[in-house]
Design goal:
By secondary structure, this protein is α/β, with parallel strands linked by helices. The chain is built from eight helices and seven strands, in the order E-H-E-H-H-H-E-H-E-H-E-E-H-E-H. The structure holds adenosine monophosphate.
């Protein structure tokens, strides 16, 4: 496959903006992996890895995990063979240091790829709170539900693996407030950087899932 068919994409947007839904759909279409930093970290917790306990402490209180840990976890994932034609990132990079880390990882494992396209999905704070308070996840298999838009078939039970679903610890109201504050502090400088150095596409995330998807596909010309 020639270089033109590779896609190195970064998705940004506040918690609850629908990034996960969009990146999963896009990954299937482009046949490249969608990689969520949050999901990789939750995997470390589920599997009780060496860094799992430290990650859990930070995540449960809505704080960011250290750059060192996130770099290790991301690099381990981004050097796997299934990323050779590209990848879609969600939740990484989150600030300047992590941009440098991503550039280093690209230098090391992806022939110095520079053509990273960035999508920013924006939604209002009111909509963010509404969405997150209705989100439920399965800690056993990682599936995610929304009690109004996408509820499980059987109340409280994961469709995929039958385990109980629950509210994410960091979707509790105090943790949401902290995550939003974190997000805004980090997001604006990041957006500024990407608008100067990369192609940055802004997408209205309050539209239907289908319409958001169409906008992304139109921008990517795929
Ligand atoms: P998310 O699933 O993207 O909402 O992330 C959930 C939590 O994982 C965040 O609140 C952080 O504690 C942690 N996290 C995710 N991505 C990163 C990152 N790039 N750097 C540091 N911590 C992260």
């Amino acid at each position: 496959m020639n270089k033109a068919h590779k896609h190195f994409l970064v998705f940004m947007g506040p918690p609850g903006s629908g990034k996960g839904t969009q990146t999963d759909m896009l990954a299937k279409r482009l046949k490249i992996p969608a990689i969520s930093a949050g999901e990789l970290l939750r995997w470390e917790i589920r599997n009780k890895s060496l860094v799992g306990a430290e990650i859990q402490k930070k995540m449960n209180s809505g704080r960011l995990v250290s750059d060192k840990i996130i770099r290790e976890v991301m690099e381990k994932r981004l050097k796997k063979p299934d990323t050779k034609n590209g990848f879609i990132l969600d939740g990484f990079p989150r600030h300047a240091k992590q941009i440098k880390d991503l550039e280093e990882i690209l230098r090391e494992h992806h022939e110095g790829e520079k053509d990273v396209l960035v999508f920013y999905i924006y939604i209002s704070p009111v909509e963010i709170r509404r969405r997150l308070s209705n989100r439920r996840v399965c800690y056993a298999c990682g599936s995610s539900y929304h009690l109004e838009i996408n509820p499980p078939k059987k109340k409280g039970i994961c469709d995929k693996c039958g385990h109980q679903i629950e509210r994410r610890k960091d979707d509790a109201p105090t943790a949401i407030a902290r995550r939003l504050k974190n997000f805004h502090q980090e997001n604006d400088p990041l957006l500024e950087y990407f608008s100067e150095h990369n192609h940055l596409y802004r997408i209205n995330g309050e539209q239907s899932i289908e319409k958001v998807r169409e906008d992304i596909i139109r921008d990517l010309k795929i």
